[in-house]
Amino acid sequence: MNASKPLRPFLILWSGQALSLVGSAVVQFALVWWLTQETGSATILATASLVGFLPQVLLGPFAGVLVDRWSRRWTMFLADSVIALASLLLAYLFWTEAIQIWHIFALLFVRALGGSFHFPAMQASTSLMVPHEQLTRVQGFNQMLEGGLGIVAAPLGALLLAFLPMQGILAVDVVTALFAIVPLLFIAVPQPEQSAEELATGKKTPYWTQMREGLAYVWAWPGILFLMLLAMLVNFVLTPVISLQPLLIAEHFGGGAWEFGAMQSTFGIGIIVGGLILGAWGGFQKRILTSLAGLTGLGLGIGLIGLAPANLFWLAIVGGFVGGSMIAIANGPVRAILQTAVAPKMQGRVMSLIGSLATAMTPLGLMLAGPLADQFGVRPWFIVAGAATMLVGLAGFFIPALLTVEDGRSNTPPPLAEETVPEDVQPEPGAVNA
Asked: Which among 90, 111, 110 has a CA at the least distance from the CA of 99?
């Protein structure tokens, strides 16, 4: 990527996407609150969460191949448009008072399905629109945006619920989506170069061949395999921390809604601060060192929350701030590594595969953490999760394949012969290897 490439098109695209994400986050909050008020059912809320991440787990690797085959510009355009149309339809159902619970589940599913295509397409496009030396800073601003959404979504959603009916809030989401959709009609999004075979024949490589190529590409690259394992382990131990946080606040600290809100806001503020630091600093020259340092700090912050005595809630707040800021420091460089080290034509597949496997750890972690927390209390999970995350981060400094992951294979992909992928990794037509 030429460093002189103008950033203006990307910044316009990014700004529209950011505004759309605000509308989406507000609608997500409003729908969950509506389900809570209408049903009061934990099962309904759990099902809503399940519907929201299943498409990523089950369909992510398959969507990644399509992202690499299709125009990434039109993939984002169609994904955003379908989500906006689904919101518009749901607004009509609320307006006519024909709304049913399953209608909301359907919208959450469509949103998650659209995200399975949109996120890898946007991330893969970023590497072709932004100078490589600026990618870590861009990811820092992405982390800042995610942290900001965590802070503003709930109060903004609550404010809109006080003045607008649900169809009005959904209409706001449709309007903000237009800021993401319309620029895609005018901004050129680069595509990765075609292979020599595709240029010679004028035909795209068959879908299942590209699927095998993607799996072979990852399988033959130890650094990426370790990165995937790291993401899976961290998601496994840290996802339950989010779900168990209200119980820790109530049972250990004897707090209420104010304390819970303070902890949530502190995490969000921490992510924003971490994103600002990463955006201004850019991290170490070797990005993986920044990420591993952030992961170690994240474990320290989570452990501090669990270790804080009941009468020192402020210490847990400090832990929340440290953890939040380190989330940005850990996550941002990893995305930048994938955008620079992975061949552009492979990025959709690789990012989707990593996202799917990491997300698949969510239900497993929750299934284990719930019974253990009931048996031994909530605090031990925070302490163990913090210690495990720290150990994973520190261990990464001693894994040569991980430390050299940025040397990459973007210009020299591994051979894609059948024997490069074990038989149990090759998907059969119609199989879902999530």
From this structure: 90
